[in-house]
Amino acid sequence: MSKVVATALLISLINHGAYTDMASAWEDQDFVRNCPPSRCSDGGPEIRFPHRLESSNSSSACGASCARLACSGPDTILHHPFLGPCKVTAIDYKKAVFQIIPLVDSLSPCPLQKLIIENLPKPDYRYSRCSLYDAQPGKTVSCSKLLTPSSSPTDNYDANIADRAVVGPISCLSDPSHFSYLVDANEYIYSLPLNCKAVSKGIIQIPGLVTADGPTFKQLAERIVNFAETTVSWSGGGIPYNCSRIKVIAATSSVAAFVVISLVVATALYISLKLRNGEWKEGLGPKY
């Protein structure tokens, strides 16, 4: 029996492997045909998996990232959760980052005010692992005097705060008697001079994270205050991981089911051969 079963299983597994390779090749061809790369213009960044253009006719299954991309004329637009619409100038698929420029409302006397969030929305746990939502909160403060590293009106004032956690003065929020700054909201208020006070409860979410070996809050925030080109990551979101996990489970289940079926077929073949050779008769005992 062992030789018959082994032979049957070997042939079955070889056929299954060939079928799997063929099916995989067809799946790849179908994906490329149904989800081709696209651009908003000839010189624009290529949009391909895990991204898709919302304005395209491709299926939602063609994308698996948390980034919302669309075309506005020849421009590729990213709808950033905190910055709003941003022009995408480049996409690095290896590093999983966008190069973006926040769009300025030319009709607004102070575009930065539109980035102030009075009440943060409840977190959407579908995107809890999406790094587009990584941000450092900043608050606007008003000071009656220019804030410089050398000024120290109180013993509690951190003289280095202006170098790493303060951006400004912001001209469109200032007036002749007060200077407005954007300050890292994680700093204590008593770290600032006594002539400074918070002007609102709203915050501005600055994309990115401040780390010991990374950029400071000031470096991140200066790009946003000036609406300059900045880099944001789009990694995470959990969706690609879930898809890979489902694919592995499905493949494993398929192989396991195939092995069980192959064993049943091999056993049936063995019994059939034994009956044909007259080695078995009705019942389970051998023929005498």
TrEMBL record:
> Any idea of its EC number?
2.3.2.27
Q: Which GO terms describe its molecular function?
A: ubiquitin protein ligase activity; zinc ion binding
> Catalytic activity annotated for this protein?
S-ubiquitinyl-[E2 ubiquitin-conjugating enzyme]-L-cysteine + [acceptor protein]-L-lysine = [E2 ubiquitin-conjugating enzyme]-L-cysteine + N(6)-ubiquitinyl-[acceptor protein]-L-lysine
Membrane topology annotation: Single-pass membrane protein
Record field: transmembrane: 248-271
Supply the alphabetized keyword list. Membrane, Metal-binding, Signal, Transferase, Transmembrane, Transmembrane helix, Ubl conjugation pathway, Zinc, Zinc-finger
Task: Tell me the protein family, please.
Answer: Belongs to the RING-type zinc finger family. ATL subfamily.
This chain belongs to which protein, by name? Answer: RING-type E3 ubiquitin transferase
Q: Which organism is it from?
A: Oryza meyeriana var. granulata
